[in-house]
Write a structure and sequence with these properties.
The chain is mainly alpha-helical. The chain has a single domain, classed as Tetracycline Repressor, domain 2 (Orthogonal Bundle). Helices cover 73% and strands 0% of the residues. The chain contains eleven helices and no strands. The relative contact order is 0.13.
């Protein structure tokens, strides 16, 4: 149920998907859905929790993989984030702003904690690998990176700018990382800093 709901919400937004739509896609009666979920907003919460859990699991897995080099690990993390943002229609960002702002606030809190924990690991790993400069004030860099993400990747900013979340993220990463990289690091990452993924179009599965 949750995977089907994620597909519908990510493609068409929250307000445009009804419990009838979800039941029809699943091939069950609407009453069956209400045995599991209290309503559509409850379904959205379950989808968000699943996405957060999967994303954190991927990060933890790759960060713990001692067989992968640092460049491979950070490239995987950036690609995972880019793919996730590209799969979400701007309609869902708009709907969360209008109809479920409290859910977005919850997402933002979790996002802040995840970003700080994992980006700190990436920074420290990159310094040890000689990819990032060793004169960085890590706490300041973390605060700057997270503030840019929170300022530019939120429903209001995305709708106001007209840029996709994926394109915005790609720009932040390209500009921000260039200031962190050593010369050897810059050459290693020269073809890996673009995390843009073609967005999923309406009606595309």
């Amino acid at each position: 149920m949750i995977e089907t709901a994620r597909e519908l919400f990510f493609r068409s937004g929250f307000s445009r998907v009804t419990m009838d739509d979800l039941a029809a896609r699943l091939g069950v009666g609407k009453a069956t859905l209400y045995k599991v979920f209290s309503g559509k907003e409850d379904v959205l919460v379950a989808v968000v929790q699943r996405v957060v859990s999967e994303t954190v699991g991927r990060f933890e897995y790759v960060m713990a993989d001692s067989t992968a080099g640092f460049v491979e690990r950070i490239s995987f993390v950036l690609q995972t984030i880019g793919t996730l943002f590209a799969s979400i229609s701007p309609l869902l960002f708009e709907d969360m702003r209008r109809y479920a702002p409290h859910i977005w606030e919850a997402i933002n809190t979790v996002r802040h904690d995840i970003a700080r924990t994992n980006f700190e690991k990436l920074l420290r790993g990159g310094i040890q690998a000689g990819v990032f400069r060793d004169d960085l004030d890590i706490d300041l860099v973390l605060d700057m990176f997270i503030s840019q993400i929170e300022r530019h990747i939120n429903p209001d900013a995305i709708l106001r700018s007209g840029r996709s979340a994926s394109d915005t993220l790609a720009t932040i990463i390209r500009v921000f990382f260039q200031g962190l990289l050593t010369e050897p690091g810059r050459s290693k990452f020269s073809d890996r800093l673009d995390v843009r993924i073609p967005p999923l179009k309406e009606g595309q599965a």
